[in-house]
Amino acid sequence: MFLSVFELFKVGIGPSSSHTMGPMVAGARFLAALGSLPFRPAGVRVRLHGSLAFTGVGHATDRAAILGLAGFTPEGYDAAAAEAALAAVRAARRIVPPGLPPLAFDPARDLLFDYGPPLPGHANGMVIEALDAQGDVIFAETYYSIGGGFVLTAAEQAAAQGGRTPPSPAVPFPFRNAAEMLAMARASGLGVAAMKRANECALRSPAEVEAGLARLWSVMSACIDRGLAAEGILPGGLNVRRRARAIHQKLLAERGLNLTPPHTANDWMAVYAMAVNEENAAGGQVVTAPTNGAAGVVPAVIRYWLDHVPGASPARVGDFLLAAAAIGGLCKHNASISGAECGCQAEVGSAAAMAAAGLAEVMGGSPAQVENAAEIALEHHLGMTCDPVKGLVQVPCIERNGLGAIKAVAAASLALRGDGEHLVSLDACIETMRQTGADMHAKYKETSLGGLAVNVPNC
Questions:
Q1: Do 154 and 144 form a contact (C-beta atoms < 8 A)?
Q2: Which domain holds residue 146?
Q3: Which pLDDT band, with edges at 50, 70 and 90, does 257 fall under?
């Protein structure tokens, strides 16, 4: 099993990788399919199902679906151009996709929210239909947004669920679980990041790998900086006030004062994560890590390490990201990184495990200690539900990223104090997450039908 670091960490837009980026990607895929048809449709219709319907407006799923059909992509997103395109669609009631004739599309009529049972392949399902001049369906495709911006057609999802996925590319260390990862590390004498780098370099040049890793950290770091500088109220109607800037200013003012308590270190970790997730909630540019809803944990721990830990070096950020991606790939392959599938344990829990592994790696941890760090972080997120108030990635998501970063640092520190030997393996923990997600009631999995979402006023 191979999942590239550049698939797990993707530059995109907020507020959700599965509910915003995914539907936009699905729209782009549908356009590509239309371009290969021998006929030209006259119109298009979108049906959102499951979690995409229940929290679609709060996650900007409706906007993303339209923009995807208009030719926008998450990685090339231009906010001003997107607003202009949305206004044009609403005014003209048609979409003008690049390279195709205009398609009739009235958002009030042709963007449908189906609140019935979810589609069979995944909780995040959508159907896009091409229509003839009479309004009859002449071509349709079902897409599943499976978390982290990954999108599969119904056929691709059925193949994946049936174990019929396309073969992974040949890489020197094709570990499918943590046990195999540790066995390969022992046999090769390499660390987790080194094995992951060797895998990446089997598919692209070392220079491309390093440039790509540098790009990811550049976007992550810039997102932290924007979040620490911004003020105001987040969109969506909850009137949630941005807090990262005010907290950061207080922390800066307290630097060097003898009265500052040691636990203030937690505030630094949290404020970096909150800065990212406030940017995400505002629809800004973020990096999936492994999702948008959990995008703050990994960059927060990297920034904390760089700015607060003696001996930290920017030259090793790539190793941090590679070790984190190795763990994230195991979570995705053997369980899930989708809140709609396994709750927030799959998002912030996986992110904390990734961040703990990355920190243990760059602080000199052995492969066993890296695995131990990831296990500790994930174990103490097991059972966490996904219950966003009003379907917005704000409450409890923003603070939850801060606490995820704190847990990640604590997990790495505990692992580094030991020798890597421990009772619960990372593989057992990931399997427990999968089973817990399967048993979890749908109302606790990103539908906003349970938990805080129904016990906190929406306005």
A1: yes
A2: 16-161
A3: confident
Name the domain count of the chain.
Answer: 2
Give the domain-ending residue among 161, 192, 218: 161
Shared domain check, 264 and 221: yes
Looking at the domain assignment, is residue 10 inside a domain? no
Is 333 in the same domain as 387? yes
In this structure, the answer to whether residues 155 and 187 fall within a common structural domain is: no
Rounded to two decimals, the pTM is 0.94
Residue 1 lies in a domain: no
CATH at 258:
1.10.4100
pLDDT at 162: 82
159-217 pLDDT, tens digit per residue, is: 988 877 777 889 999 999 999 999 999 999 999 999 999 999 999 999 999 999 999 99
Q: Are residues 157 and 186 in the same domain?
A: no
Residue 161 confidence (pLDDT): 84
Do residues 365 and 415 share a domain?
yes
